[in-house]
Please model this.
Amino acid sequence: MRRLPVFFVIDCSESMAGQPLQAVQEGIDFIMSGLRTDPYALETVYVSVLAYAGIVRTLVPLTELFAYRSCELPLGGGTHLGKALDHLAKEIERSVMRTTADVKGDWKPIVYLFTDGRPTDDYEDAISRWNAKYENKVTLVAIGLGQDVDFSILKRLTTNCISLTQIDHEYVKSLCKWISASVVSQSISVGNNQEKQDLLPLDERYMHLAKEKLSFRKGRVDDRTVTFIGRCQKLHHPYILKYTRHLQYGELSDVNINLYNFKLQTCAGISEDYFSWTDHAAEKPKINTSVLEGGSNCPHCYAETAFAMCACGNLMCYDGYSEFAVCPWCLRQISFSASGEDFNLTRGQG
Ligand SMILES: [Zn+2]
Ligand SMILES: [Zn+2]
Model:
């Protein structure tokens, strides 16, 4: 039996925190349960799920559909696309059967690569390596989630670049319907002993082919989201604060001066696992707190603010009145003075 291997490579970087990651999690479950009810897919499709942030790991090795168990997507710091491609290549070498003189191997693997931002690692060489070996051996579909995607990078990997303009439940569901239908259609083709190449038509209300090289602003200052990691002083559990960019002085845009600030979008507890998915060696950018708007209670102990900083540079929660506190990061006792001044803070890598 020739298998049709389908790989999902999912960006689980911190900018995905909250609704986007939840939507993708549901989307993957939706795809799998849909495929499992399809007789053609059940017969040929094998699936694998890889997650990448600052670290890349295989969540589900290549598995036949009926044996697939839902996996929980992690969250980590960084978007190491280069590492993800190298890891995917290894996974393909390890699990996909090649055609030899005696045996017909697996059908051409399909890869759905999800990303919501720009790579944070040195991806150039990894892209060259990938193209040299797999350009014609694997069908890669790159899916850019949201507005921060640098398609000029994804275009170097594949002409199949799809832009999903928003990352909410409705958009992701529409995308996953399309993926599901695409995999079924491919499994029917291979059932008839053909491999077809064309993409199924897209639901243009939600997504489109990213055809042109989109112009893209360079530099980290223009990011749409900034994230911070804190720890609860009382319970020591980590949490993430995610701010999204808003145009502050729109009227100045015609003179090309755009002033942005960032508004709080999500403050939620995260798993300790976050640190194992983060590349701690990567450069950590800073941001001045004056551009941040909005605060939150601690998601764990509901203390007044989740945005207190220790001299060690880390964030913690603070009840607003205690004179002393113990930093959950460096365990030093610190005294609080309400300075009200803005400060520079280490932010996530995105
Ligand atoms: Zn707390
Ligand atoms: Zn500290």
Summary: Residues 4-209 form a domain with the Rossmann fold fold (CATH 3.40.50.410). The helical segments are 19-36, 39-44, 81-95, 124-134, 151-154, 169-191.
